[in-house]
Design brief:
The chain is of the alpha/beta class and 427 residues long. A six-stranded mixed sheet has the order 3-2-7-19-20-21, covered by helices on one side. It has a six-stranded parallel sheet with strand order 11-12-13-16-17-18, with helices on both faces. It has a four-stranded mixed sheet with strand order 5-4-1-6, with no helix packed on it. The longest helix is centred in the middle third of the chain and has 17 residues. Helix 7 packs parallel to helix 9.
């Protein structure tokens, strides 16, 4: 299909474009920006008057729940949620059942995703067998099967020697290791941020040092090995101070934050709202403000949805017993734009927000995505920045209907999503 997107405002941070430009697509690629290539005859014209034309979003953490947890979500439902939210590339953690520690499982997941012909799926392989933290997986074989990095998801490694060996192995083959800094013992049974709110509600706490102690260990191992590490779901001001210093030192690290943590604090637990039961927990206002500032100064590289669909049976429980997690694929764009509007300079707000969920994310994964240069894959998100929509559980495409943003009104509604040159979603 040859597509001509006309009259839209193109925002492509990777190529420094923020202006009204037409986009021309053929054979799944961008073949022209501004000017149509010679002999181009569009089979489909999309009038994008009043819309922003941006690269398709790249989400660094979306649990698709397959294989093993189809009662919580299916590949079909979550891929539909992705394109409905303008997400065209997503990274999925390895904590499925069975765990993604065998090449055959990775190939099966990739094959299932390809058959659906919607968003591109990039799995993370398990760093250790069954995520038990004891023996390393065959990382080279998993990479050949399609893994773009290696992770323990939310399962910590108790034996630091195993983590050291993993980083040494990863450095040898230039693999990226994705780690969430969380001490396995501090705040092990915690469900909320340690502080006055948790104390008042009688909830067990997860202290800030659960993140910083683990972070000190990871950074020291990175110094020794030189391995490339991506830090997942940073949540505290103290943790970000360590990341900022490590980046100044030149350590090969990057980091992301969950979209919920950019806007919400421990106060949003309200009266034991289990929709706000997340992992890591919502932190204090000082931490939230540090995350927002870190996104502006480059300490935090990326905003991700941390999409974790949870079914009613595991969510509609007392706060401390509810499973952590929230749906986020369909909210990622709007929450990124909300951050840009509230924190960045007005003229740069949209471009900076889009960069955090497109080109910056693609750079971490090493993908030729998140940009719309001529010759690039035609993954495009068209959205109306002025359209407001209300977050309603029943209207979400994801099988996971639980999010602390239910009832909120957000700006930025996706009108169409193009994946590799075909229209995957049109409102």
């Amino acid at each position: 299909m040859k597509i001509h997107i006309k009259n839209g405002h193109l925002v492509d941070p990777a190529n420094g474009i923020d202006a009204q430009q037409d986009v021309y697509i053929a054979a799944g690629k961008v073949v022209g920006i501004g000017q149509a290539p010679e002999g181009f005859a569009a089979s489909k014209v999309i009038d994008a008057t009043g819309l922003i034309v941006a690269p398709g979003l790249v989400d660094l953490s979306a649990r698709l729940r397959e294989p093993g947890y189809e009662h919580k979500a299916t590949l079909e439902s979550e891929m539909q949620a992705a394109v409905q939210g303008g997400v065209t590339s997503l990274v999925c953690p390895p904590d499925t059942d069975p765990v993604l520690d065998e090449p055959g499982l990775v190939e099966m997941l990739k094959h299932r995703a390809r058959l659906l012909n919607q968003a591109h799926v990039y799995p993370l392989g398990a760093l250790t067998t069954k995520l038990e933290g004891k023996s390393l997986t065959e990382m080279a074989e998993l990479t050949d099967a399609g893994c773009i990095g290696f992770s323990q998801a939310d399962q910590p490694i108790l034996d630091t020697t195993v983590l050291l060996r993993a980083l040494q192995y990863a450095k040898t083959f230039d693999f990226t290791v994705w780690l969430r800094p969380q001490d396995p013992h501090l705040g092990r049974s915690g469900v909320a941020h340690s502080g006055p709110v948790a104390s008042r509600l009688g909830l067990s706490g997860v202290p800030v040092m659960a993140e910083t102690v683990a972070l000190h260990t990871i950074l020291e191992l990175v110094r020794v090995t030189g391995a490339r590490v991506h830090l997942c779901r940073m949540s505290t001001a103290a943790g970000l101070d360590l990341v900022r210093a490590a980046k100044k030192e030149g350590l090969p690290i990057t980091c992301d934050v969950g979209a919920h943590h950019v806007h919400m604090t421990e106060m949003d637990i309200g009266f034991f709202d289990s929709n706000a039961r997340l992992n890591p927990p919502l932190r204090g206002q000082r931490d939230r403000d540090a995350i927002r500032a870190g996104l502006l100064d480059g300490t935090v590289d990326v905003i991700c949805s941390d999409h974790t669909p949870v079914d009613d049976d595991e969510k509609l429980l007392p706060f401390g017993e509810a499973s952590p997690g929230a749906t986020g694929l369909e909210l990622l764009l709007s929450l990124a734009l909300k951050w840009g509007e509230e924190c960045a300079e007005p003229k740069k707000a949209v471009a900076q927000a889009i960069a955090k969920v497109t080109s910056d994310a693609a750079r971490i994964v090493g993908l030729q995505a998140g940009q719309l240069g001529v010759g690039s894959v035609a993954d495009v998100c068209l959205f109306d920045p002025a359209a407001h929509w209300k977050v309603e559980a029943a209207a979400l495409a994801s099988q996971g209907k639980h999010t602390p943003f239910v009832g909120y009104e957000l700006a930025g509604q996706v009108k169409a999503t193009i994946v590799a040159g075909h229209i995957a979603f049109q409102r």
